[in-house]
Amino acid sequence: MDPLDPQDKIRVLVAKPGLDGHDRGAKVVAAGLRDAGMEVIYTGLHQTAEMIVEAAIQEDADVVGLSILSGAHMTLLPKVKRLLDEKGAGHILITGGGIIPDDDLVELEKLGIGHLFGPGTALERIAAYIRDEVGKRRAARVE
Amino acid sequence: MTSTIPRAKQWQQRAQSGDRVALARLLTLAERGGDEFAEVHPSIHAGNGRAHRIGFTGPPGAGKSTLVEAYALELRKRAQRVAVICVDPTSPFTGGALLGDRVRMNRLTLDPGCFVRSMASRGWFGGLARTSEDVADVFDAVGYDRVLIETVGVGQSEIDVARAADTTVVVLVPGTGDAVQAMKAGLMEVADLFVVNKADRPGVERVVAELEEVLQLRADGAHKPAIVQTVAMNGEGIDELSRCIDEHREHCAASGQLATRRAARAAEKVRRLLEQALRDRLFAGKGMERRIEEALQSSEPRSPYAVVRELLQELGLVSKETRKP
Ligand SMILES: Nc1nc2c(ncn2[C@@H]2O[C@H](COP(=O)(O)OP(=O)(O)O)[C@@H](O)[C@H]2O)c(=O)[nH]1
Ligand SMILES: [Mg+2]
């Protein structure tokens, strides 16, 4: 089986957690990943960890992409990871963007969170990372 | 797992007992199509027929997603289990898609009695994806009472939904000349029910009058479509919509129309699957492509019709008798 058969589209759930009302960044990333040939499910503003996880499961997403501005990353991201694991969806890659201190990045990586990109990262880089990571995860998946 | 039961079968069993991850995987398989799904479809089909499938179509921005959410919430009050399929277009250039209907359905996300699934049209036209019906079959089989299907909504002739649904709802809004557009797009013929949404805006009476007028012309003597006014944003008119949808379903069941429609749907499905299987077989490998090139290569340009006739003869699909002058 080819884990990246074009018939098996990469599905990415893009969400904007937190209370602030701006989702420009999330929308730009969503459009960019669509242009990279992915199916992007956009869920909008004010998403809680529970909503993100449940939507990702319903959509059979390969990836959850979060736009994080509020500094809540050290609570939110581990929570999303824990809920996904608990619900039997630990295979879903968590990635995203925001301003995140290096120490936190290391910490989050240890918890199994994927790479988090700084502001202004080229979309091609994010898309390439997702393609590579999803390919590996799909190949490794036993069902 | 070391079991020899195919994974699709396992997903089906797990989905039936409420495992949402397994259900989502099975939906992906249905969406993809192919042999693996074909294998498991008979047992899915055996569990079909109970769910009421309701399609929502209409121009972009009419409020379909908002309406679907409001209607789903109404159904939840009656403890009905609700599945939603929302289709958005695939970009023909990149193969990617931006599926945004969930933005208006956030109140359904955490409800264990709801399951929302977005689908990209994946090169299919007519308002649905090629496999939207198969996805509905899965929801039906695992026990959802209602399957709500929202079409792409780009304002084209999105009439596929009438084939996939038991009840088709056409959503229009005031002030946009929608009724006329809908008529051109063939939506008048497929509508079992009209919703004039955004009834909080001026011009509602006008659309309703336009609709009434057009419906006068519909001479088929069938169930006359109701026209319901709603404000999807605040739930106004949703109880009335709900009543009309149930009424339509009851009417169809009592008049035998439901069975007729479903039989027609099954026949159409066989035709489409057959067509696709034949096409796939015909173009499997590179043989046919090469043969086409070869047949076209001659000293003089050849008519495509002549080439097709030659190829059909080679395939034994038409006889080789020579035509008399
Ligand atoms: N004024 C008004 N706006 C509405 C109503 N229903 C939906 N909308 C708005 O119309 C816009 C499009 O709605 P959406 O459900 O996404 O439409 P769709 O493209 O047909 O699915 C959104 O901004 C909604 O908030 C309504 O009844 N009244
Ligand atoms: Mg919509």
Secondary structure topology:
The complex is a heterodimer of chains A (143) and B (325).
Chain A: E1 11-17, H1 24-35, E2 39-47, H2 49-58, E3 63-68, H3 73-86, E4 93-98, H4 102-110, E5 116-117, H5 123-140
Helix pairs in contact in A: 2-3
Chain B: H1 7-16, H2 20-32, H3 35-45, E1 52-57, H4 64-77, E2 82-88, E3 97-99, E4 114-120, H5 132-141, E5 146-150, H6 160-164, E6 167-172, H7 178-184, H8 187-190, E7 193-196, H9 204-216, E8 226-229, H10 238-255, H11 257-282, H12 287-296, H13 304-314
Parallel strand pairs in B: 1-5, 1-6, 2-4, 2-5, 6-7, 7-8
Helix pairs in contact in B: 1-2, 2-5, 4-10, 7-9, 12-13
Largest sheet report of chain A: 5 strands, parallel
Q: Name the quaternary structure.
A: heterodimer
Report the CATH architecture of the largest domain in chain B: 3-Layer(aba) Sandwich
Task: Name the CATH superfamily classification of the largest domain in chain B.
Answer: P-loop containing nucleotide triphosphate hydrolases
How many independent structural domains of chain A? 1
In terms of DSSP E residues, the strand content of chain B is 5-15%
Indicate the proportion of strand residues of chain A: 15-25%
* Structural class assignment of chain B: alpha/beta
Largest interface: A-B, 33 and 33 residues
Q: Provide the CATH architecture of chain A.
A: 3-Layer(aba) Sandwich
Strand order of the largest sheet of chain A: 2-1-3-4-5
Number of helices of chain B: 13
Runs of chain A with pLDDT <50, length 5+? none
Describe this structure in words.
The complex is a heterodimer of chains A (143) and B (325). By secondary structure, chain A is α/β, with parallel strands linked by helices. Chain A has one domain: Rossmann fold (3-Layer(aba) Sandwich). Chain A is built from five helices and five strands, in the order βαβαβαβαβα. A five-stranded parallel sheet of chain A has the order 2-1-3-4-5, sandwiched between helices. The longest helix of chain A has 18 residues. The radius of gyration of chain A is 14 Å and the shape is globular. Chain B is α/β, with parallel strands linked by helices. Chain B has two domains: 46 residues, no CATH class; 210 residues, Rossmann fold. Helices cover 47% and strands 13% of the residues of chain B. Chain B contains 13 helices and eight strands. In chain B, strand 7, helix 9 and strand 8 form a beta-alpha-beta unit. In chain B, helix 1 crosses helix 2, helix 2 packs antiparallel against helix 5 and helix 7 runs parallel beside helix 9. Chain B is globular, with a radius of gyration of 23 Å. The model of chain B has no long low-confidence stretch (mean pLDDT 91). Chains A and B meet through helix 1, strand 2 and helix 2 of A and helix 1, helix 2, strand 3 and strand 4 of B. Bound molecules: guanosine-5'-diphosphate and magnesium ion. Magnesium ion (MG) binds next to helix 4 of chain B.
